[in-house]
């Protein structure tokens, strides 16, 4: 017969020997993630304020700028395009927009929107006339440079338009 001390000793020996017999195996856990290109546009505004057709703007354009915000995933190549607006003039195209703000019914004030402060590159609605950008993952502010053409004979009133901003990526 085994006494209590022998049982304890035997238990300790079995426990120690079972640890010595343990075997480790290993494998791999594969991980992956996909980041898709994406962009988001936040609305902005370009306010020309007051146009004086019988004063300074009889011969000089009214220049103003406005901004809107764009966020694209890091490394995303995109083209930001501006539509023709709600009131394009006859002959307007996406590549050469002839934009107009509307006052009263059938009363319009012609304007242009440019990509640069020198107002030499019209901002259109095609890949060739849009602005190329590369996303950084952070919000970027884009500036639209507007010009109301001089010498327009229009009545008193408030004139407005809306341009759709499209981002192709």
Give a brief rundown of this model.
By secondary structure, this protein is mainly beta.
How would you describe what is shown here?
- Helices cover 10% and strands 31% of the residues.
- By secondary structure, it is mainly β.
- The strands form two sheets. It has a five-stranded antiparallel sheet, with no helix packed on it.
- The chain is rod-shaped, with a radius of gyration of 34 Å.
- It starts with a helix and ends with a strand.
- The mean pLDDT is 92.
Descriptors for this entry?
mainly beta, 5-stranded antiparallel β-sheet, 3-stranded antiparallel β-sheet, 8 strands, 10% helix, 31% strand
* Low-confidence runs of at least 5 consecutive residues: none
Task: Report strand %.
Answer: 25-35%
Radius of gyration: 34 Å
User: How many DSSP H or I helices?
Assistant: 1
Order of helices and strands: HEEEEEEEE
What is the molecular shape? rod-shaped
Query: From the helix content, strand content and strand pairing, which structural class follows?
Result: mainly beta
* Topology, number of strands: 8
């Amino acid at each position: 017969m085994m006494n209590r001390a022998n049982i304890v000793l035997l238990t300790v020996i079995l426990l120690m020997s079972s640890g010595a017999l343990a075997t480790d195996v290993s494998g791999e856990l594969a991980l992956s993630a996909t980041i898709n290109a994406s962009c988001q546009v936040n609305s902005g505004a370009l306010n020309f304020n007051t146009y004086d057709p019988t004063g300074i703007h009889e011969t000089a354009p009214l220049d103003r700028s406005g901004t809107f915000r764009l966020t694209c995933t890091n490394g995303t190549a995109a083209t930001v395009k501006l539509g023709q607006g709600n009131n394009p003039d006859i002959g307007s195209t996406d590549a050469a927009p002839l934009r107009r703000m509307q006052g009263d019914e059938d009363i319009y004030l012609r304007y242009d929107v440019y990509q640069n402060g020198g107002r030499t590159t019209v901002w259109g609605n095609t890949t060739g006339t849009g602005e190329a950008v590369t996303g950084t993952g952070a919000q970027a502010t884009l500036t639209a440079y507007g010009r109301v053409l001089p010498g327009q004979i229009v009545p008193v009133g408030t004139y407005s338009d809306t341009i759709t901003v499209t981002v192709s990526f």
